[in-house]
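Amino Acid Chain and Its Fold in Token Form
===========================================
Purpose: to set a sequence beside its fold so the mapping can be learned.
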Amino acid sequence: MAVRSSFYAEDTVSLKANHSIIGIVESTWRDVDSIGLTRPSEWIPHSGTSEDATKRSTREGQPATGHVVVRFILPDTGCALLREEDLLLLDRALTMGDVVKRRPTDAESGMVLKAFETCLIEPLCAAAGAHSSTPQNGLLVQAEDLSFMDFEEEDRIIYNDWIGEIVETNVEVTVRLGNGTIVRVDDVDKLEVADCPRHKLREHPQQDLVSKLKHSRKKRSQATHQSSELLIPAFQFWPGQVVFTTKANLRLGTWKLGRYSANEPPQGIVVDVRVTGIQVRWIATKLFDKTRSSLEKPFPLIERSELDKVRLYNGRNFTSLDGRSSNEMGTRRMHDVGAGDIVRFYDVVGAAVKYSPDSPNKAETGVFHQIPRAAMEGFDMNAFLVRSTSTKVYVQWQNGTVTEELATNLIPYLNVDDHDVWPGEIISVKSEEIHNDEGLIELKKVGVIQAVDALERTARIRWFSNPLVSIFKDQTSVLFSGADLGQISDKESSLPLYDVMAYSALSKRRGDLVVLAPNSPSQAIHTAATLIGVSHNGHLPQLPDLRDTDLTPDPQDILSTTEVRWFGEVVDLTLNGELVIRLGALDEVEDIQVPIQRVMVAIGGDNPDEVDSESGSSLLGYGSSSDASDDSCMEYEDVEDIIEETFYEGGERLDVDGDEDDWMTDGSDFEAPETIDSIPEINANANQVELQPKEAEGEEEAIIEKELLGERVSLTTNNGLPPKLSAESGLNLSTYSSMPPQFDVLDDMPGSHHFIASVTSYNASFFRQLRREHNVLLSSLPEGIWVRTWAARLDLLQVLILGPRGTPYALAPFLFDFHLKPDYPSTPPEAYFHSWTNNIGRINPNLYEDGNICLSILGTWHHKEAGEGWNKESSNLMQVLVSLLGLVLVEQPYYSNNSPNSSKMQTNQKIDEAGFDSLIGAEETLVPARIYAEKALCLSKGFVSHAMTRGCGALTSVANWIYRDVNGPKLILLIVEETREYLDRRTKSEINNPDGKLDVTRQPLSAGAEALLRRYLPALESIAGQVSA
């Protein structure tokens, strides 16, 4: 039965047992790629959470299935691991640009266009005279009426023609003591707040969470400056907050009212928090202004004396009751307001009128009683805590319709398919592209998505008439100089989603912050976009100086005004291919419509903390800018070596013969010649392997050769398989007497090999290890794997793996190149995958189109548990090959998506990689898993066609035997028959949402997959026609 997901990160929830206890979901059991903000040691124990769930969550670093970690908001503190069934969903944090679904099993998704929040707020200074009266004991207001307290982290600012993002603020805090005196403390780092000690909350695990939190509230309310065990450093300040400090911190402070008294306890209420400086990460600047003396970025620290020159980027247009704009009032856009935020009214006078006792809506909204400044010696104490929110959103669905929805009725679509697109996105038809010799991809057919049939995997597209667009092969987020999409035509047609590519150079996303070029961009400006594109380590790249560029801007162009018209935010994508940009830095915010070639992305909207590789070129200069591979496959070093043995499921060791000495890695300094004559002579039709040492020219060399190759090794070949692999294959290829040897050493030189240029010298211990590896490969290769190496290059191997039956990869050829470096096995083999997908996308999450292979044992993916990575003492090539066969080419490849390895593919199939195993059986993964498997099935047929028409390197003869040799299994006939069956099934049945079974070989295909499969069928039929009866 599918597991239904209830909660997602950033959801606002309350305890069912006590609705007044509210929190934010910090991490969930489906967050395989994220790490919670808190450590398990900080969780408050709860009697409703089992000990087993707590142990598993602690061990795996993420909540156990069916559990979430919740961080509580004021008046409570701390966080806890809780069962989903113990929580009530109050709101879901959705914002512009988020991708959502109505139900987990829907194929169709939508894009959030706008979000409107209603906030339940409570005064933080009720003791000073404010109060409210509603059934919820709070004030119900619109988020647009609110503002944050002051400059805050993640605020975007404008300063000296630069756009920046605040990364840290420095503040000063003023406190009112119990005797009425007021002082600005000397050192804010010495201010403390009351909190119940964590060790106290962890006592009595059998006690329920509500009781623990109530106890914590009581303790905090009783705290005094003498309650040292209850005091912790304060990291955030707001008016009305009770704080504790030292007498010295008060004595050395600046007294605003009264003077220091040694008899007054050093505790009081915060009455003012003021920013004295901000640390800024600079994002972008106005590149084309001739009047500027320099493009040098400002210093990262802006101090108090300069803060009055800083403007906040609003992103929306408020107007107060007295006609003042939001910028004139010093307020800013309320981005991502949520429960637990500390806020003010952006127009406190207007709010007092709107939410007055005379308001006709007071029964629904409550009444705001303003605290006059005069009551608090001139300080503004009208601060509020957001207790909860309620969000409504407008969503544009893939079919083009727009609806209004409650956020709680939608679910986030977290793991978007590579081929998903939405209306307004600009795409290129991949089959029409030209890859020229200058490193460019010329996009010859470009259009705008009008609507998508997500279930059938097709899109309706409106085309540009004469596009002149090129992008860089290695930097597909940047348009080449002189790009022009031309006029949009009325011509529309439908294509499979697999035929189109939404390059980030063309497809911007709602929420992207962008820099605009002038209306008539020149060659130099396009060059600037190229140069700006990429830098390193999060630092701004060297900007091109375009102040002398010959520009003749229009009267309303960005250079003809001192206003910030050169920077904005993407708020909409039109169906004619243009973008709606909000100029949020203007006094009166304005929306304009511009063509894509005028836009350079500064920050991707999908992740404000880093540039989104799918959102465009980076003016920050960090993050990936290539669409070629979504997640770079990186090399990882093991922290420590773990001794392990390798077993089949039946219990047989792979390293069955020989003692530990055979695994030596520390050898002499002997250098083998590039061509080695003393290699094993292998008879494919015999069960004996003869290793004959050559005649050594010198006595010392002869001794090394004898030790290296041994006297004579007798091995019995064994084409058998572990029981599980045999059952899955079901081909019994070893029964064919004509079957080529699974392992062979070739006498000729390698023809084509990815690592052929990697030539170096090797010592005796390397060849001792290699002999051991060859013996294991000769004796124990599973059915469906063939390995070739060369007498002249024993450091190179080429491997052909036949896709296992019962998977989308059934009977397809997968070709890999391996290189053993001189220090092997201290380091894992280098590996390369021959991808024949024709830029349609990865055939498997582990196997990248650029040849990278992400696998823990290869050191190219992180592993969570000891023993999963490469170990120089026990790992070998056989393990790598078995991993590719049994852990990569699997029935449900989706569950290694994004985190390319998975620890369980099925409930009865254990594998050793870590990734999306927690999502197996989750309702929201059923449709994406089917779509991924469907694509893999179709691409696998293309692999067969490619292998038969272009060969498989040193294993071409093996491929010919597999598919069309008259004395072989002639699998091409079976492949053609099954392909016709898939297509016939499509005509007899309609597609329904999956029932949890992911075997695409038994389900009808979508229209997009059918089109892709029909494209491969003629070539397959032609190959089948070459087979003799």
User: Anything to note?
Assistant: The chain has 15 helices and 46 strands.
